[in-house]
Amino acid sequence: MPLIDHAAGSDEALYPVFEDLKLGRYRLVKEVLAATGHDWQVRTFRSQVIALYAAHTPAIDYWHQEEPHTADSLLMWARVLTQRVFALRLPHGDPAVLAAADQARRACRAAIQANPKCPAARVCLLALAQFDADPRYPQHQRDHWAPGADGLLEGPWPLFWAVRQRDPENREAYQRLLQFFYARGDGAHSVAQWLAMSAGECSNLHMVPLYAFAEDFRQRRDRRRVSDFTYWTGQQVRRYVQLARDHWFAYLDEHTLASPALSMDLNLLAWALHKSGVGGAGPVFEAISPYATAMPWQTLDNRSNWIADFHKARSYALAERHVSY
């Protein structure tokens, strides 16, 4: 089975958009965003993926110049400026980062004013919060910061709750919140486990600890302080992997599983089930189909032939499922 390693995954409507962007055109971006309506999950996903590509083209710049007051152009302008801050790859206290992040925040506030119900621009603000995580480099008044509940560390909680009010299952918001605490250097695991404790059946909050484990594993592996076997087979990791399988994935219906926004969640769950030995990854691989994602298969593995590793893990999981029945 040939794998499709693309951020858009199964969202076929996005593929022509990228061709348009290469030519500096935004018409298809405008049409695709308009088609999402108030489906906040799809809107958040599409605007994020589009921005990954649009940040390297002038297309959204042209759109913002020609339609500076429409909600969709303002959202994509905020998305692109936010993505460009990350693309600078400079220390968070660098003057160029400070200036770019401030410009992106202004764009986010304009997008929020134009469409207050949409969570995506607030997700951008949440992403930008990590550039203000180091107290040595404060970028602005931290009016969006607050102490965490139940003894959790201070952070951009008002932004996070504002996103959850609009879209309780917003995946990117959880990931951006964890990124903030990783940038701070403390608190990510506590936050992830606290969120999972509050999760009901079929909530993707059960996946948040797996993202925290993945980042922790990546950092430890880069310092050569851990192996994938010893890390993923630990009792605590296995417990949360099993919870994600049994209290989130097991409840998903066919329509939900088809959402391209779930691709990374499904791939990470399959990886974790395989690496931890918890098992039961067969149905997850079937839901993934050919849509592999870079995280975790490439990001968490030093080996170059990740495609072969994916197929090997998939074959093992499907064979395990056959034997279990």
Protein model, in words:
By secondary structure, the protein is mostly helical. Helix content is 62%, strand content 0%. It contains 18 helices and no strands. Helix 9 packs antiparallel against helix 10 (188-197).
Name its key features:
mainly alpha; 62% helix; globular
Layout of secondary structure:
Layout: H1 15-22, H2 27-36, H3 40-54, H4 59-66, H5 71-87, H6 95-114, H7 120-128, H8 157-166, H9 171-184, H10 188-197, H11 208-222, H12 228-232, H13 235-247, H14 254-257, H15 263-276, H16 282-288, H17 294-297, H18 306-324
Helix pairs in contact: 1-2, 2-3, 3-5, 4-5, 5-6, 5-7, 6-7, 7-8, 9-10, 9-11, 10-11, 13-15, 15-16, 16-18
Give a quick summary of the entry:
This protein has about 325 residues and is mainly alpha-helical. The protein has helices spanning about 15-20, 25-35, 40-55, 60-65, 70-85, 95-115, 120-130, 155-165, 170-185, 190-195, 210-220, 230, 235-245, 255, 265-275, 280-290, 295, 305-325. It is built from 18 helices and no strands.
